[in-house]
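SAMPLE LOG
Freezer: B-3
Tube label: C17
Construct: single chain, 605 aa
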Amino acid sequence: MLEVDNASLLLDKYPAIGFELAYSSFNPFEVFQDKQGFFNAKRHLKDGLIQFLHDPDHIQKEIESWRAQIDLEQVEILYIYGVGLGYYYLYLQEWIKEKKERAVIFIEDDLGAIDALLKMAHTQELLNDPQVHLSFVSDPKLWNAVLNELTQTYPGEKLEVSALKAYMGSKKRKINKMRLQLMRNAAAFSALISDVLYSHKLFANLLPNFKRWPDAFYINEMKKKFKGIPAIICGAGPSLKKSIELLKTCEQRALIFAGGSSLTALSAQGVVPHFGMALDPNYTEYLRLKPALAFEVPFLYGNRLYPEVFSTLNGPLGYIRSDTGGPCETWMEEQLKITGEPIGADLSHEALSVTTLALSLAYALGCDPIILVGVDLAYTGMHSYAGGVLVNSQIDLKTLKQNTKATERLLRKKDRHGNLVYTLVKWVMESEAISSFAKKSKESRFFNATEGGIGFRDIPYVPLKTLLHKYGSHSYDLRGLIHTHIQSAKFLQITHHQIDETLAQLHKSLLHCKDLSQEMLNEILRLETLHSPHIPSGKMVIIEEDFQSELAYDSLLGALSPLLDRLLNRAFPPTFEENPHLYIQRLKAKWVQINSTLLSQLSVF
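STRUCTURE (predicted):
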């Protein structure tokens, strides 16, 4: 009878899984009670072996050992491959209840295991827990799609991935692949979330940087202007020092692009790149670039860049239209008629660094070949940067291992020489993004001349000396050529007055949005006092329509509302709409955040 009730509950909460269980064929498990009084499940396989869902000798030790191996103190989302008989859930209940933001997601690809789970008395508790979710992979080809959907449904960077002990042996490779994929998905999606959720902080960078346009040149106008000229994309990896002497010979042989910290690293060794680049919106970018000595180098920037960085430079400023400043930047570009295809539009969603943008830019300029130098994407020699960036770049392995953010999670991979080296999830993502870009960009040849690091799939390693001998025999007046193109790419049509007028419109609309959001909060507070409120009220509908018609909504707030809805799903059960007062609490939380964001954005003006 219990099994029937659980099956009905499963069908109600997870209809797709319930349907699969009812109409698909599978090899069932037999649930039995062991000598210690625990229930276990077993089934016979085609090769004559017996498969158990839990340790056939001591289930209690299995569960305790599993729990002891994972540190969940900083974790918010726990993925577990294999639901077993639900014992792991029982050991997690106290942890789950400590914070309503926490979630446990069981991923299963065996209908037999889910069928066995339904026979357990505590399964009803598991299925009814709003912080616990069950996902079924019905086809091996759907793994990527399922993992993508999960990381978007349950967004967050503080996650951990584990597995049922019974799966850890036979499915270890699949578990490692799943773990990396979930980390990469979470990192990419969290980067988008961060820009939206903290849009007021990004806006604090955008506003002063918009006003630099009249004095800048537009690098996008230089498309194909350097056709056939070699480009060297420099990273700030530890192995960069091995290429310094050769880079000093490239003044008239190849365009040198230095993104972020590599500008500091190169200039400290007497190498002056042809273009500097930076995009990082944080104060740390200022600290990394402050020691740079290449003051007069043409400097390419995106509006998201931390504004204080400009105080460290004195060269020509070049704006990169790259769609990295969000909808507000796009709206401003439209208003001021800044057109042309964005640089980086052909990069994958995992391209999160200035190095990948430099690669796309070099390709757009027509450079060939494009050579990567100092792009280790690993802690080569246990160092984080090339010399000159930090006083001490030696890494603290213990501290790195404690980081729970998906992008900063420590991994071990084989380097170009086959030796194990420490890297990060974000660097694995960057390597894949660069590899994918090179594979589809047929008009240029790509080479990796980085002496260390994890390398790139399908991009061959060739020593820099060999590449310069083969492709760097021509001499160009590169700085003269750059100067000429800069003069013809100035933003002559944009004036400070135009920018001020456009921003004044945005400011006026933001003020109106603030008034509307306060009206909405007042209405929510009124409904909160009613015994049986009707949600949404007519006034709420009108306010929402007015709010969404404001230009500030499209340019600054449009992505915030759906994102908050997604995030609030973690704190409120899926059936919140059935409870008017719970619905009001959710709406209140949402509009408090919107109102707070508006006040922060207005404070920037």
